[in-house]
Model the fold of this input.
Amino acid sequence: MRIVRLQTSDGVVTAAQTSHGFQRILGDPASPLAVDPAAAELGDVVEGEVLAPVVPGKIVAIGLNYLDHIREASMDVPQSPLIFTKFPSSVIGTGSAIRFDPSEIRRVDWEVELAVVIGRSTRSVPAAAALESVFGYTVANDVSAREAQFADGQWVRGKSLDTFCPLGPAIVTADEIPDPQRLALGTRVNGESVQESSTKEMVFGVADLISYCSRFFTLEPGDLILTGTPWGCGEFMTPQRSLRDGDVVETWIEGIGEIVNPVLAPAA
Ligand code: ZN
Done:
């Protein structure tokens, strides 16, 4: 099932994306995570603005987790997952603008990532059972202000600006993605492909990441794990590239969909 959140004239509605359009999920679940995809019944077709499909409690992000990205960055393969965070206030939906002040924020980059939506409270889970904690998957763009990221010694400021975590368009429930390590994914900027890879390039797969994180902190329903980005970031191109006012960024994952975000960064 593909679950979306819509802003309608009646407020925020949880709906399923079907061949008939968006259909309200009956039983009026308060959140996408309250939907039982095996038992959900669909009601009338509804229209509205597509919002980010989940309001995350915390966003756990993983750095340097694709072999092709580690090669382009000339880094060593991490011995264990490199964890950082993005503030939940950075989340926007498809269609919303990535905004920044170009006089203060420079070298803004794209990063397509498979985002794992946690469905149950999870602590100290072995990798063999970890996928049972997954509610579903969505597309994330881990937008990164490289100057701030590399100036600070840690990455929170450069990763957590308002609007720097586009998510969506839907949560595809885990039953429809039995193997998250076989998905093509990529990014286009103004229609030009800049990232294209496969989740099979991950150093630590989804099950290992959930298991590792759960050794140190509890993963709660609605938390997200952003699983890292493949090669093709503008920062590592020759010459370097970055996002500018008027650009349009599309990030996509096979079987999930794509999110489209314009860049709004006018010079003062
Ligand atoms: Zn990232």
